Amino acid sequence: MLKVDNKNKILAEIETTDFFDKLPEEICGYKLKKIFADDGDKFFYFSYDNAENHRSFAAYFHEETAEYKVRVKIGLTEFCLTKFFTNKLETFEKILNAEMKATIENLSAPIDTKTDLLISDKNFDSWDYPKTLPKNLEGFELFIKPDNPAKITNGSYIILNYSNFENFCDFTIFYNIYSESFSGESKINLVPNVSYLFDATSLKDLEKNLKKNLEAELLNIKKFSTAIN
User: Fold this and answer.
1) What is the DSSP code string of 163-205?
2) Rounded to whole angstroms, how far apart are CA atoms 123 and 121?
């Protein structure tokens, strides 16, 4: 829980600014939701959500670090954007004014794998294997494909994702530009777990691992998710 003194300070700050009153009701199909409530050690001000695309942008204060932050969600993957970090609300408002609209626009904008210099040499768009993947597999929806990956943080891209949004579980293949390697991760009730069976340094090896292990991995996630729920 947020400390009472911190929450009172935050609520008092809100009264001194008209920034939140001036937020647009919609940005690029993302709907504004004013929250003004704490969740654990975080106080959330507002979010912009696109339920159809399973993406969101949320602004909050983090008590642990005493910083104002932005958290982005793509599918069931959440991460913070460091360019928004600051310890002053006034500065946070300025950064939001300068960066929020473009950031939200880019959340749903397709990535051209041919022109993105960080991954253009991987030839994701010409990889034939993903074209054979079913749209639905073992109760999971094919949410992200390699020809339209999602850029996240620390040089990583989501190049493949199967999600069951209703049960809060998924399976993801990441590519990292620094290690030039692929890795797998599953989430059950939003709790992540690394899947080493998918580690690879080439698309050829990744394809072998996926053909051998993908369906079994999804079945395993489904089994544990069902047991928990």
Assistant:
1) EETTTTEEEEEEEETTTTEEEEEEEETTEEEEEEEEEESSHHH
2) 6
Q: What is the pLDDT of residue 229?
A: 63
> What is the rounded CA–CA span in Å between residue 158 and residue 101?
22
Distance CA 192, CA 187 (A): 4
Per residue in 19-57, pLDDT (tens digit) is 999 999 999 999 999 999 999 999 999 999 999 999 999
Q: Extract the tokens encoding 178.
A: 């620094």
Write out the DSSP string of 33-68: EEEEEEETTEEEEEEEEETTTTEEEEEEEETTTTEE
Q: 138 CB contacts (<8 Å, ≥6 apart)?
A: 215, 218, 219, 222
134: exposed, middle or buried (C-beta count within 10 Å: 0-12, 13-18, 19+)?
Answer: exposed
The torsion angles phi and psi of 75, rounded to 5 degrees, stand at 65, -125
Classify strands 26-27 and 150-151 as parallel, antiparallel or unpaired. unpaired
CA distance linking residue 7 with residue 2, whole number of Å: 6
